[in-house]
Q: What sequence folds into this?
DNA sequence: TTGAATACATACATGCATGTATGTACTCTA
DNA sequence: TAGAGTACATACATGCATGTATGTATTCAA
């Protein structure tokens, strides 16, 4: 029916279509409504094709998570990361519609034992990518400045909260107070960066950077 | 079979059992696995009883949300609320296992059109209970101190993030960094309270309260 | 006290998601 | 190029959740 294709070409193409369809369905309709029938309908393949490549939905979700994590953490290995740059990277990611797919799978892992058995290790492995240890230079500074790590985790949890707000809003838009919260986070990140930077190289950073306590509004 | 009971007594007792069973099932097994069969099994009633009182699961979830909101917001109408007291009230609530039931229903509302049609108004009405306007004295101060409202919303979203972390963890426990994040929030709340309080009654608050920039760690 | 309404209980029918089993066309390898 | 393996497609069977319809016991109201 199609043009001539190698086996691996057909396989990867079909699996890719299934992964994309599953992601889209998770975002638009949630975990509960994301059935194999719905996924195959979106992907334009039959359930036979799905069953040939994946033993269960959980298997497919494994590939979905791999795909999403790869998208989310691209470019996160900058060796000169600061709290501000880390925050800005996170901000560029959390508002993506696909983030809802991750939230759906997180909750599903907790709820569905069979799914969790297969996926939980992958979820846990992903979680380490968001820990400070994933940013060596940040982690190093945190050893001397525990307050920096506190700010890091505060930023992290706040972003998750904002992502959940988007995921639960009817059109996927952010809450009315989103901008002001982000502004607050940016201020905190910059202030803490200034503190940590100032103590590293004593007296040359303070003049060019705003003071650590600046809360301009 | 039972001792003599009035009609309304039997009704309220049965509905109460159904609400509790539904909440427990939402917490333990999530929205997807919370079927009418499962709820009735937990409640110890037949599906006939359930169908007699509720036209659908969505109707029951309406009562579930009412019950949970009543529990969560009890005592939130203190006229002398501060950011710190509001935060402490929130901290005493968000870690309750029942909070996961609310999260499940929030996401389900977004995912399930039929459910959302009936429940979304109720969810939105609940959301207003968490807005600053629900704390008149706080809202009044925020008019002169927009930064206070920023801190308020930051606290709000961070707590949601922490609640989600608990909801998605295998045993419902908080993340390792939970304590340090909460400590950071408390510091921010106290500092901002001091700022707002200091500007209200000029010079008597600063001596007894820690300075607004204190970040003791 | 008697009819009517309420509060259930039971049984049946329907729809849907999944799993499996088998058939077919294409591709690779020897 | 011929057999074998791969990549699907189709059909059937099963299980489960929901809705409905009807039956029964209890309570209420006149």
A:
């Amino acid at each position: 029916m199609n043009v001539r294709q190698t086996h691996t070409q057909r396989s990867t193409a079909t699996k890719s279509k299934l992964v994309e369809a599953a992601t889209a369905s998770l975002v638009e309709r949630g975990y509960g409504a994301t059935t194999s029938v719905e996924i195959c309908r979106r992907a334009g393949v039959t359930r036979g094709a799905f069953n040939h490549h994946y033993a269960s939905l959980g298997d497919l979700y494994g590939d979905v998570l791999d795909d999403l994590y790869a998208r989310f953490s691209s470019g996160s290995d900058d060796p000169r990361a600061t709290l501000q740059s880390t925050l800005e990277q996170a901000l560029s990611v959390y508002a993506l519609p696909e983030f809802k797919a991750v939230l759906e799978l997180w909750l599903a892992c907790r709820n569905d034992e069979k799914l969790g058995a297969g996926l939980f290790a992958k979820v846990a492995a992903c979680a380490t990518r968001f820990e400070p240890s994933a940013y060596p230079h940040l982690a190093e500074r945190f050893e001397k400045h525990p307050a920096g790590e506190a700010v890091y985790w505060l930023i992290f949890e706040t972003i998750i909260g904002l992502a959940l707000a988007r995921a639960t809003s009817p059109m996927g838009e952010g809450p009315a107070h989103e901008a002001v919260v982000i502004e607050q986070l940016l201020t905190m990140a910059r202030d803490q960066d200034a503190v940590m930077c100032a103590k590293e190289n004593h007296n040359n950073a303070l003049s060019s950077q705003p003071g650590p306590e600046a809360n301009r509004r």
